Amino acid sequence: MPTWLTRHAPLLLGAVLTLIVLGIAGNIPFFLRVSIFTQQALGVVLGLALAIVYLTRPFRGGARERVPVLDLILAAVGLAAGIYVAVRYPVLSGEFFYRQTETFLVGLVIIPLVIEALRRTAGLVLVSILGTFLIYGLLADKVPGHLEGRAQSFPKLFSYLGIDLNALFGLPLEIITSIVVVFIFLGQLLLRTGGSEWFTDLAIAATGRSRGGAAKIAVIASGLFGSISGSAVSNVASTGVLTIPLMRKGGYSKTSAAAFEAVASTGGQVMPPIMGAAAFLMSERLELPYSEIIIAALLPSLLYYIAVFIQADVEAARLKIPPIPEDQIRKLGPVLKEGWHFALPFVVLIFTLFVLNRRPDTAALWASGTIILVSLVFGYKGKRISIADIWESLTGTGKVAVDIIIIGAMAGLIIGVIEVTGLSFGLTFLLVQLGQGSLFGLLGLTAVVCIILGMGMPTTAIYLIVATLAAPPLRQLGVSPIAADMFVLYFGLLSMITPPVAIAAFTAANMAGAPPMKVAVTAVRYGWPAFIVPFLFVLSPSLLLQGSVGEIVLTAVTAVAGVWLASLAVGGYFMRPLAVPQRFLLFVFGIGLLAPTHSIAYGTWILIGSIAGAGLVLWYERGQARANPD
Question: What percentage of the chain carries pLDDT values higher than 90?
Answer without folding.
Answer: 13
